[in-house]
Specification:
Structural class: mainly alpha
Distance between the termini: 21 Å
Number of helices: 11
Number of domains: 2
Number of strands: 0
Order of helices and strands: HHHHHHHHHHH
Strand content: under 5%
CATH topology of the largest domain: Serine Threonine Protein Phosphatase 5, Tetratricopeptide repeat
CATH class of the largest domain: Mainly Alpha
């Protein structure tokens, strides 16, 4: 699904707004600590995070996730996943729920492009649960659409269609035209595979009209 790949990469590149930039010396300290975390084995990262709570914050997660996103944009999804996992660990240690949510979504994308559908589903479901706790409707819709895409890839078209329509309803309520258009195309694709050509045509025409 070429359109999905382009959309997902674009979504990964548009990260949530970062916190206001700290002073230059602090920035370098955060960057240095991020590099140390990236190079450290998992058991060592836990110790490092515990030793420097002053540096465990959204800026640290953002730096690591941004690095991962650049790697993912080059379609090096395996290394990107390893780095996203570190960003997720930092987000949870920092209590950065928005950062955790965002990182789970891009983890789902990356696993999906490696055809690791079970891992992608776990990431999307974790984000969906978190988004519901946060009452973040945009994140609820995005993770629901992600789950729909997993179902589509497994040829579970009824589940995929229901989930895409759930996501579409939220996007329509939010007046997110870009997401509405993409989701309508997905609805049309699934309807077409189910030989429901009228429904497919309707979805495509609605997408074109946006």
């Amino acid at each position: 699904m070429t359109n999905l790949r382009a959309f997902a990469i674009a979504a990964m590149l548009v990260q949530a707004p970062a916190a206001p930039p700290p002073a230059p010396s602090v920035v370098q300290t955060v960057i240095d600590f991020a590099e140390t975390l990236i190079a450290a084995p998992a058991e060592e990262r836990q110790r490092l995070l515990a030793e420097r709570p002053d540096l465990v914050n959204p800026a640290l997660r953002y730096f690591i996730a941004s690095r991962a996103t650049r790697i993912a944009a080059a379609q090096q999804y395996g290394p990107a996943i390893q780095m996203y996992d570190i960003a997720l660990e930092v987000a949870r240690a920092a209590g950065d729920r928005a950062g955790e949510s965002e990182t789970l979504q891009v983890l789902g994308y990356s696993h999906y492009f490696l055809h690791e559908f079970d891992a992608a589903e776990r990431a999307y479901r974790a984000r969906l649960a978190l988004a519901r706790e946060m009452n973040d409707r945009e994140a609820i819709a995005a993770s629901t659409a992600g789950l729909a895409t997993i179902a589509y890839s497994r040829a579970d078209y009824s589940t995929a269609l229901a989930s895409y329509r759930d996501a579409l309803a939220i996007y329509e309520a939010l007046a997110n035209d870009a997401a509405i258009g993409t989701t309508l195309v997905s609805v049309g694709n699934v309807a077409y595979l189910q030989a429901d050509y009228d429904a497919a045509a309707l979805a495509y025409h609605r997408a074109i009209a946006l």
